[in-house]
Amino acid sequence: MARFVSSPCLMILMVLMTVTHLFFPAYSTSRHVFDDGKKKTGFRVSLKRIESGMNLTKFERLQHAMKRGKHRLEKLSAMAVATSDSDVVAPVHAGNGEFVMKLSVGTPAESFLAIMDTGSDLIWTQCKPCKQCFDQETPIFDPAKSSSFSKLSCSDKLCEALSISTCSDGCEYLYSYGDYSSTQGVMGTETFTFGEISVPKIGFGCGDDNEGSGFSQGAGLVGLGRGPLSLVSQLGERKFSYCLTSIDNTKASSTLLMGSLVKTNTSSIKTTPLIKNPSQPSFYYLTLQGITVGDTRLPIKKSTFALKEDGSGGLIIDSGTTITYLEESAFDSLKKEFISQTKLSVDTSGSTGLELCFTLPSDVTSVEVPKLVFHFDGADLDLPGENYMIADSTVGLICLAMGSSSGMSILGNVQQQNMMVIHDLEKETLSFLPTQCDSL
Questions:
Q1: Full-prediction pTM beyond 0.90?
Q2: Which of 119, 237, 360, 407 could join 40 via S-S bond, C-beta 3.0 to 4.6 A?
Q3: Residue 24 pLDDT grade (very low, low, confident, very high; cuts 50, 70, 90)
């Protein structure tokens, strides 16, 4: 855990964490329910990291997540410029993610785990009868046994919002992800239940042909992107927030709030406008204007994080990428300044997979590291030390939880931990509110 000491430094306390199993706690819910007119109310869902039940060390957990994150970065960067490539036939979407949520579908309700993904839109789950389905822990949903299921009309606006669809026995879809995974089936509407809150007539993909290795964490996916197919866009109040616990905290769950449960009436909130990339309108792009390390504003050109005309570049905030990736020249400047201001020896072993690590002295329990501030348009995000430096005394290292990117930049979930991150699609803003997420 980190605490402030004399500016511009932070004190990082190295605590060895024991990895234990994390279970979903009981849901906290609103007293209201959604009606057929999409009444403006809200609900709360618990989230858990996909590796929360595994016996891993801190750096092992981080290394697994980084491997997925690097692959996701490559996918997202390619997707952002795909529309200008005439050779691309089928659009691809982000898929995967680092958090899963428990929900139910149908009447009677059948529960399943789904990946939460802020980088894509479609809500879907595996459905019977399967042409090809992957293994899942819970029974595969059978729409024939649900009294609330109905097929989506080909003229429905949600069918028209699909990149690829055909009209045969209702609206049929194909949704592909960047790791060559895909889901294919029929679009329907159904009642989804989150805790005790039931939401009728949600448009979703009923997938009977689901291929690839990208969905092993759950039985489907809940898209929370900015497009019309996403869960947040289909609700009456188009806003949501999440509060992610520390990557060290393997006991407490994280939290997703939807609709009216999202609160912004506090003086300590920091708000920045969302911007759109026409090539990928689902992504949450932010304007990053600069970075300060300690008291030093890094000499980064204003155009470094700008969104380019071909859809490349820019910075998105993403819950499904673990560490932050910065454009290469900006990261090099950041790395150089951290080395200059951190009074520790640089580790050159490369054992962690991170691009900058320092050796921890064996006789200390705390070290000083420079402060770090991200300057967004209208919002200076002063990060707590534990949101960018990860220490593990068992291996004697403390590392910067960031990396370099040759294209798009991504603000990852380690940098977002213990903050309420509020996405308001009506106002087109994103807000940060420091919050102890394991106390919600």
A1: no
A2: 237
A3: very low
